[in-house]
TrEMBL record:
Name this protein carries in UniProt: Flippase
Taxonomy of the source species: Bacteria, Pseudomonadati, Bacteroidota, Sphingobacteriia, Sphingobacteriales
Pfam families hit by this protein: Polysacc_synt
GO cellular component labels: plasma membrane
Keywords for the protein's UniProt record, in alphabetical order: Cell membrane, Membrane, Transmembrane, Transmembrane helix
Entry keyword annotation includes Transmembrane: yes
Family matches, as InterPro entries: Poly_Biosynth_Transport (IPR050833), Polysacc_synth (IPR002797)
Amino acid sequence: MLKKNIFFNFLLSVSQILFSLIIFPYASRTLGPAGIGSVVFIDSITQIFLLIAALGIPIYGIREISKARNDPEKFASLFSELVVIHLICTALFVVGYIIVALFVKEIYIHFNLVIIGLFILVCNVFTMEWFFQGIEQFTYITKRTLLVRGTFIVLLFIFVHKKGDEALYYGFTAASYLFNALFNFFYSRKYVKLSFKGLDLKKHVKPLVIILCSNIVMTVYLLMDNTILGFIKGETPVGFYSTAVKIAKISITIVTALGAVLIPQISSAYKDKDFGKIQSLINKSFNFVCTFGVPICIGMIITGPFLIGIIFGKAFTPSILPLQLLSPIIIIIGMTNIFVWQILSPLGMDKKVLTVVVFGMIVSLVLNFATIPYFSQNGAAISNTLTELTVMVSSFIFVRRLKIVTLDIKPLIYSGLGSALFFVIAYAIHHLFAQTIITEVCVIMLCAGVYFAFQLYVVKNQIILSVINMVKSKLIKVAPLNNQ
């Protein structure tokens, strides 16, 4: 079951990368830096309201649903209580969003996009992804997501063709939320029915308030860089910066893919006091982050100019340096995901999580206001990277004090040694041949080949071996069908 969930969640992460490589470059080239910047600016504000309105239910819901799976009565009441709480809070924040949009000039001038953002806010209530993650329905999540993303791509290429189509582009994003909400709401009825009778909402207030506080301060350092950059420097730098962030965070979906699968397992293991299983799961997760995070980070630094130039065009050249400055967050966020969401949160240590993110918020605000006025999008990138590093280190300190798990740093060392070869390969090819699309593709393929050969034959990395075995098993199952 675990291997199957890992496979489908990894497939989901890869699809997210391919989706972003198709959609965002097309939208950026079509709408231009200012156009895509205005959408990103409003969407960052929408995401702030969306995250706060959710209270922390996406985190709390996964944890509690996974614990209640074997108690049908508790399972049903928990589901209904969390949906109702989310619905009430969203109604309040819809009103708040409208008020903010009417009185803040920089937001009001994009009121057509705000209306779409309000629709996204409402749809998010019934998306209920936390429910399906809690019951480990990653196969369904992957299939549904691929269908919705495919539909989005078709609609985008049919209707979005010129500058001024920002509302259409954002509207199709909202349609994706709607489709996900409809699919999830009706599919959830297979497992549980939504009820408004006999609900006890109060018992969830204290843990949700703590997680809400964490989400509020977390929102500041996750989304405020775009918002602050937009207010201080305008829409065009937001377009440059958001492009770099988009590429960096595409890769993060791969590095954190295993974490989403492990959270329900770790929560369940902690309920059963099975600390041996927790240690085993964390070891796998740490190895996974090192194996994929380190080479992606180094590769991003080397190929940054090529990626920006080929995918987005010369107009986005100012995005190159921010991308290279943001590259370390691929490893950093991967580690933070382990310390915070796979250890502290499943163990119910929400107050420690709050302490970590408050510290991160303070660092983020200070660095953003110190760097953005002078370095624009480059300053935002520096601020983002240092903030994430601060959060990672502070969360690691808390985890180390718990003495529940220990980390073997050998996977990090091996991945660093294998990735260091990238600089030699890139220098040799660039020194011998002119820099073209073909040479850059050769650099990427050769680096990947050498790295995985190193991990497979020298290190004998169990993560790589497991991936190969899973792919082989899938091919073996498909082969008989093709022979019929």
